[in-house]
Amino acid sequence: MVELYDTTLRDGTQGEGISLSVEDKLLIAKRLDRMGIHYIEGGFPGSNPKDMEFFERVRDLSLTHAKAVAFGSTCRAGVPAHADANLQALLAAGTEVVAIFGKSWAFHVHNALRTTLDENLRMIEDSVRFLVANGRRVVYDAEHFYDGFKADPDYALATLRAAQRGGAETLALCDTNGGSLPMEVLEITRRVVSEFPSLRIGVHTHNDGGLAVANTLMAVEAGATHVQGTINGFGERNGNADLIQVIANLQLKMNRPVMTKEQLRGLTDLSRFVSEVANVKPDDRQPFVGRSVFAHKAGIHVSALLRHPETYEHIDPELVGNKRRVLVSELSGASNILYKAQELGIPLQKDSPELRRVVETVKRLEAEGYHFEGAEASFELLLKKAVGRYEPYFRLLGFRTINERRDVYGAETTSEASVKLQVGDEIVHTVGEGNGPVNALDSALRKALEGVYPDLKRIRLADYKVRVLNERAGTGAQVRVLITSREDGRSWGTVGVSTNIIEASWQALVDSIEYGLMLCGVRPLERAAVGG
Hints:
alpha/beta; TIM Barrel; Double Stranded RNA Binding Domain; 3 domains; eight-stranded parallel barrel; three-stranded antiparallel sheet; 19 helices
């Protein structure tokens, strides 16, 4: 069986923009344990107090599947293993398993360690032996192994033998610079597996050549049974092997089960959870789990998918907890619209006048600058209007916005908006202020509606984007406004287009509020009185 060794909490945090608190690390460790990861490398206890705190607190998590691993280096040149502060810190971490790295490349021994080849072998063997003598299981990370092997295979293998003599149970071969090719990794790993039949051989790859996942899979094909990586490929420079992709490929493509089917279905949630904790926007195009990787746009593709999903999908997205999405755009045909209608539970028949009208409307609106891929809530409202299932929550009678800036040093521009609505049998006229005209409109609209629809208080605007569609028109250009709103963990997007940014914002804002109220299960007030 292939062991999964996660180093998100250590190697992953070396990536630019990635920082995890102790609480963050504990949260991720619990999720990794639930997913069936075998080893969780928690940090470098010899380097900082935060990692030592993690190892003190991880003992209280009562991990049911995974083992926490402390990471460090071999003893320093000229220093006995028992006197090395780094190795003492590894023991103090109290983990059953420890991982240490040592040099495999003669170039590094001479230029980084500035010591002799023989002393490097002594450092590796003595360090491993010291840890094993103190009751630890040792994973030896052979740093720069593939580069070292290509330069001097005999010496690279000698470093592994030193770790073996010391008592290491796993030898992890590292492509530290991330520049090896899959055929090189396959050949070199196969050689190591044959040289060390009694030990578990592992692999640790970086993605500098865009091949970290491929190199990991080639190592497994060559006989490696221990794979290291990070969730979402976080890591130094452009990252490590993405364990999400490694796991999915091993289990679904190489017939090497590494977790249960239920755990495999949690991959998408795991990926997004780690991104959320790390405060990193999820990659929509991340293989297997990205939001866009099972999204289909071209009408001919969707037509085929409706009959046979495997025509344009290499796996069933549900196997990894993802889902198919059909996008609506000017490239869409009737198949896209029918699929979306079916997905949303909206009755729309093939060859019906309503379907033809929706297809024509979408193409016309997209030509005007609308963009429904990021505004599926606006599209759903459009569909409901087409089949007569749209019930408006209010009717706009008029709105006005005023921006004012007085000629006073340090004065800020203020915005005020007034809206006049018909809600049920009532005419409501309210005024709101904001830090801009759109914010003021939102404030006035909410004042007018929250008394009638109190659920509106749960809906908040999460993102607001403006894109100029025809730059050459200057200040008279047409703009597209995209709004993202949230309520209780749910989010949705709406769109508006106009040469007037306030009008475009109003369109997107109204769709956002009406769709949000619909999601909350709120019924419109007296449809007949409100009007269209």
